[in-house]
Amino acid sequence: MFGVVFPNRSFPIDISTFSQIDTFHWVLDMKFFVGEAYEDIKEMCIFLLSSGSLPPDKALAVYIQSPGSAFLFCGAVSIGRPSAVLPLQWPDPGGHMQLTSAADTVPLSAKIGVSVEDLAALPSLDPASEGRIERLALKVGENLFNFMQSFCSVDGSRLVVPMDILDRWFKKFQERAKRDPDYLKGFAL
């Protein structure tokens, strides 16, 4: 159904390397795969092995779990997006897991979980890209703010800027991007 590659760390791993929990859930114990240094694995590529692996309304969701933490959603693949490189931002060990009974135990090693879920129920197939877009918007906003500061004056408790400041900033931004193709790469994260 699916395979996984840890770039620069592994050959392709198929579903048989994962422990199957039930029909729709698999877990890879990172202790057996990499030992205690699971946090050194920063990304993984997950891919469907064939176009018939999943129904069109389903997705394979990927979750990670540090020892003692809850599972954290990383992204997903579906028929419309049959492969993805997902960043693995491991949660802090031991953080935010509540035990409900004495029978509950804290996991002793990090895990990667894969589950078949309804595509419509997932928040986003690539939550990391949303974070990159937010960081990009923040950097562009900082650029605008820095430009505006050089033209500001203070009137009591107010900052006063020229009315055409946005037009001037955008024109300068466009001209710089045309002159220097690497300029915009500085905004990407």
From TrEMBL:
Pfam families: Hikeshi-like_C, Hikeshi-like_N. Residues 134-185 form the Hikeshi-like C-terminal domain. Residues 18-121 form the Hikeshi-like N-terminal domain. One of its GO terms (biological process) is protein import into nucleus. This is Protein OPI10. One of its GO terms (molecular function) is nuclear import signal receptor activity. Belongs to the OPI10 family. One of its GO terms (cellular component) is nucleus.
